[in-house]
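User: Sequence in, structure out. Go.
Assistant: Echoing your sequence, followed by the structure tokens.
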Amino acid sequence: MDSKAILSLIDLALSGDPRTLRMHLHKMAVKTGHRDPDLSEKILSRLSVNGLRSAQPAKPIPVDSDSRLNLVRVESPVVMDDAPIYSEEILALLDQVVLERKSASKLMAEGLSPAKSLLFQGPPGVGKTMTARWLASKLGLPFLTLDLATVMSSFLGKTGNNIKAVIDHASSFPCVLLLDEFDAVAKRRDDDRELGELKRLVTVLLQAIDEWPESSILIAATNHGELLDPAIWRRFDLEISFDLPNEQMRRAYINSYWPELNKYDTYLAQFFGDVSYSDIDRSLRKAKKKSILSESKFITCISGLIENSPGNKVEQKKKDVIRLAGEGMSQRAISVALKISRPTVKKIMDQFAECKEA
């Protein structure tokens, strides 16, 4: 090894940057493999032992000092009967994450790191939490969920300590850590309505993301990406946006999770409209209970619910706007009659006019 490489390793060791140091050592081991195979093997062996660490936590699960409740929920092993339903774009991104994790040594040998921090954003009920569980299951890692109900405290200084305790615990062994409702603690620091202590929590989170070990995955999930501090976005290796499922995805969901309804999959996928998986599941469960208690056919009970489903209500509102406009009512009068905003009425009428022109 030349003097420049030696000095570079010394600088990295003294700077306390283990991530970059490990990548340089991997690279060095690969380069010296043809000259000194024995040394190369020993370096890689040491890096593997110290990098992967034990699959068991080195510390007990942290608890809140007042309530004595666990600050994280732990699931190990993660067992999933059915895989989540994704769009092709999201599936490709998740497959890439899994491939990078399983090829970590190859990447690190070239000075690259596998994705270790992911940001999931999208409306409720579209599969963000399930996707985090799915990744843990695919990688054979324990799944930890930060319970914000116990972490958040009226004493904000204590909240910072709670979050730090959770992150320190999860960093001590390979796992997948989900920070759910991320926007609750990672709000924009330029929001004047927030206290200074809450803004300092963002700094704690930024540092945690930067120092997160390669052996684990940190996932933050939010329903309100617009509330996040801008600096947060830049810290994540990958950002995945989840949308409401389209008709094809709704049909796949029904076939996978409700196989008894397979022959009605097209009908149900169309009539449920633009709603989340959780909304569909809630409606089907409600109909299932009704069919059992009333001794009626399942599909008959579902048909009654579909008429009141969120997606169908939206379509009915649009039809009502067009009908009332055709009867000569003003936008203001329609807004009052249907209890929707005037801009919404105008938007529906403009869209209808464009369709007629087309």
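User: And one key feature?
Assistant: The two ends are 71 Å apart (CA to CA).
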